[in-house]
Each structure stands twice: as structure tokens, then as C-alpha cells.
Amino acid sequence: MRDLYAPSGRSRIYEYIWRAFHIPQMDLQRASVFMYQLLTDPRDAYRNTRISQVIRHRWSRDDPAFLFLLCIFVMCTSCLYGIVFRVQTLSHWIWMLFAPILLEVVGIGSVVATLLQYIANKYFRQPHAEETVEWLYAFDVHCNAVLPYYLLTYGLQLMLSPVLVYQHSLTACVLSTLIYTVAIAAYLYITWLGYQILPFAQDSKVLYILRPVFFLVPLGVLLILARINISALVFEFYFSRNTTSWPTMTSNLTPDVTGAASSNATKAMS
In 10 A of CB 248, how many CB atoms? Predict the structure, then answer.
């Protein structure tokens, strides 16, 4: 692989961005199959990446279809959150639909890709290796790893939102911590696989990517003891910006049992 700052590296990024605005040219079926492989057998998915590199002589994807489908999933899930949290204003809908993509997928993804590209080229490469990790491949690895992360922190979290919305509930804190612990562990594992398949990488040094996993359990215990509900904080940041307090937000998700009971009692007396 060539470096980002080499002319071919820049041209590949320009080509990638150009194809992102030409949906008919995307191979959506192939990207969907790759997503399925990542969720069922990530090692097999990366074996296909190695085969593709032999054919195309590049490790990074030239087709942004995977990123396109990932953004569609995030936007569709955000729409469901907007329905659950009863979002009403247009500005809030725009924020809710595009903020996760711009902040997390593109923003944080670019930072992580740049950082890992630098670390991989400086520390992971075998001595005297001629190939280097290009930035676009580092970004592809991030997108691969973020897929199961989003399925857990967006999909599963949405289904459990009636429970997770209670900020200081012990049950909510435990479930939220468990979701994010598993999601981050999955992200690190798939990231490790992405660099482990590189023939010029040193396996013993690539293993350093997995070291943060050992800190997830004690950190999760601390979050539970401190009654810090990550899911509730995410709900507040992305999907409940129109609320002024947590009781207001929880009332949007739970039925007014007291009001219903008093109404039924009044009807019975009459």
C-alpha cells in the first residue's frame, strides 16, 4: 500500500469521494454480503479482502457502497429514535439525522483512521517492509468495525430504550454498560483483524490494539457504581435536545399511568 500523501493515495481518495455521489455505480449487493460476513464470520470477511487485494492490487475499497449503506442504517435508526422521542421541530430532525454521521462516522472515523495509519506505519510494519498502510484502508477498517458497534448502540439500544431512558436506574446502568462494553470490544476485535491480515504487519505488535479490552470490565464496574448511564446521556445529546429535564424525557416514553387511573376512577364514580 502507498501512503496517503503519495499522488496515487490522493487520487484514490478523490475517486472514492467522486463515486460517493454516483449511487448507480455502487455495488450495493457486494457491500451487503460483506456486511453480513462481518457480523457472522469477520475472519472470513477479511479473507475475502485479502483475495480482493490480490486481484485489484490494493487493500482499500474503491467503492463507497459500504459507507453508503452504513449511513442509511444510521439515518433510518435515527428516524425511529425521532418517533420514539416524539421529535417535533425541523431543526431537531436535521440534527438527529446528520449529527451521528458527521460527528461519529466521518469525524471520529477520520481521526481514528489517521491515528491508526500513523501507528501502523511507525510501529506495526515489519523491518524493511516496503508497503505502507494507506489512509483509505485505515478508514475502511474503521467502517468495518463500527458496523457491529452501531447495531448494538443504535439497534439494540433502541429496543431497550423504555428501560435505558431512566438515567439513575441500576438496571438501566447495568444494561447500558453491558451494551457499550460488548460494542467497544467488537469494534476493537474487528479493527485488530483488519491490521492482522496485512502481510507486512508484525502480529505481536498488532495485538496491542486488543489491550484496551482488559480495561473495559473494571471501567464498566466503575460506571455502574457511579450510576452513570451512557445510553441516557446519548439519548439526551442526540434525540432529546428539546427536553428540559429527565422526567420530561421519560414521560415521552412511558404512559401516564397515574392520569389514566384517575380518569378511569372518575368514569366509574360517574
Answer: 11
